[in-house]
Amino acid sequence: MKSDIEIAQSAKMLPILEIAKRAGLTEEDIEYYGKYKAKISLPAKTGGEGKLILVTAITPTAAGEGKTTTTIGLADGLSRIGKRAVVALREPSLGPVFGIKGGAAGGGYAQVVPMEDINLHFTGDFHAIGAANNLLAAMLDNHIFQGNSLGIDPEQITWKRCVDMNDRQLRHVEDGLGGGKNGVPRADGFDITVASEVMAVLCLASSLSDLKARLSRIIVGYTYEGKPVTAGDLKAAGAMCALLKDAIKPNLVQTLEGTPAIVHGGPFANIAHGCNSVIATKTALRLGEYAITEAGFGADLGAEKFFDIKCRFAGLKPRAVVVVATVRALKMHGGLSKEELAKEDVCALKAGLPNLLRHVKNMKEVYRLPTVVAVNRFPTDTDAEIESVIAACRELGVNVVLSTVWAEGGKGGEALAREVVRLAEEENDFSYCYDTELPIKEKIERIVKRVYGGEGVAYTEEAEREIARLTALGFTNTPVCMAKTQYSFSDDQKLLGAPVGFTVTVRSVKISAGAGFLVALTGNILTMPGLPKVPAAEKIDVDDAGKITGLF
To answer: In the chain, count of helices (H) and strands (E)?
Structure first.
């Protein structure tokens, strides 16, 4: 069996101009980044208005769900049945690539290529985002060093530096040591680049001018009197925007079957809003009859934020939702270990099915969207197990479609494509989980109770103080971005399936004024991951000809 990288390297890619033409773009609309990558110039050429389809998933497990693979295979399946489809994905972070999770270019015969480039430096967007983030940090500390005319309190600085790598050593640091010309000593820390507010700002901006305005509103800390200090106050927004002038342009690549793919932006859904850029999604909608996109991790994180943050800000109305599941993952939610998944166990499957059903019910009843379940089928799945999934979903009025896109590419996604086309023709009453006018605590509680299925929310003293301060400062009428473990509906990653009766603890709340939302950190969620005992980086190599191996 070929690995993902072997499949990708053996593919015959089309010149990127041909892919651009398939999407209705001309050579003047793109900027080349080699033979097989391009930036789409702003403003992108406009056409019709396609139908927006979201692909999301059950709560992730070590068994894998194949959400991105299904997203790509669905787009290829739509192309095969005569529909003009464009897929819109996030860019991978180097942290997971060299860590444990892997990349974000799909798998098997449902991939976007060139996968090595996409999973590594790609077109340099993340480097630009990191540079803009760290320029702001440097200008902040320099302002304090040069006299601190704004009266910034070093103990109330909220802005961190960032690096696109899993490096736990940088979570908490002391810098400016040595005094004098070496800077002002203070406690500091690093986030991973995908958790930077600059990433969120870029992904939610609608234009260069909107990007600059959002950057100006970023709050970096507070004065001794408690007044917020912004990037605009530090006169940093212009230079930051200059670093991002190319990064804001969406990237055009292709699937293995030549379907146009726009890959742009990459916030994580457990610590950020987990969606690709608004510009990329709107470009895909203008270029295709169907724009297929995905949101990170399970539907309680990625889909919730896609609807309540991205769609709200961008005025997007999805036409249908695909919830991806595997029999193997559902059996893990039912209590089996990874080593036990190959054998038939209908009882374990039925014990894990409530996880899928809660996600599906949320899509239908909270967000009121037509929904289909895509079961990413494995050879070890038995007919009895598949029938159990079908029967359970039928009770909710949702069809189940088997997907074999990993092994068959677009051909294995044709049935799913036909069901998506059918659902997208239905009228829907899309709605949000909460009204942004509600008080901060009520919005958090709506998410916990309506989406997670929890009983309530507890707040630490620190969170209570922050909520009181943000309320007094007028930062209440914004969406809430929940930072929560991806492995459970709750804030305890050990609670699998569909737990009930739990309380989510909010330990900290901060404002991302540039992005336009509040971030509520729950449980022990971290904004700088660490590497595992055996990092994936140990298996990656490159030969004298430049051929990369070990990359999935």
So the answer is: 19, 25
| Residue 372: pLDDT over 90 | yes
Q: Give the Cα separation of 218 and 443 in Å (integer).
A: 22
- Are 128 and 246 in contact by the 8 Å Cβ rule? The answer is yes
User: For the segment 387-411, what is each residue's pLDDT rounded down to a tens digit?
Assistant: 999 999 999 999 999 999 999 999 9
Active site includes 214? no
Concerning whether 39 is annotated as a catalytic residue, the answer is: no
- Comparing CA positions, the residue from 70, 108, 102 lying closest to residue 89 is 70
Strands 320-325 and 51-57: parallel
For the record, the structure tokens of 529 come out as 């991951």
Annotated active-site residue 190? The verdict is no
67 flagged as catalytic: yes
**Catalytic position from the list 98, 297, 502, 552:** 297
* Interatomic CA distance for residues 527 and 172, integer angstroms: 11
CB 196 within 8 A of CB 162: yes
pLDDT-derived band at 46, boundaries 50, 70, 90: low
Q: For residue range 30-39, list pLDDT tens digits in order.
A: 999 999 999 9
Name the token pair of 419: 């069901």
The type of residue at 139 is M
Active site residue 159: no
Could you tell me the CA-to-CA distances from 273 to 15, 80, 179, 296, 519 in Å, in that order? 33, 32, 38, 8, 9
Max CA separation in the chain (angstroms): 72
Q: Which of 37, 83, 90, 310 is catalytic?
A: 90
**Which of 432-436, 486-490, 525-529 bottoms out in mean pLDDT, i.e. has the lowest?**
525-529
**168 a catalytic residue:** no
Among 22, 51, 84, 101, the one annotated catalytic = 101
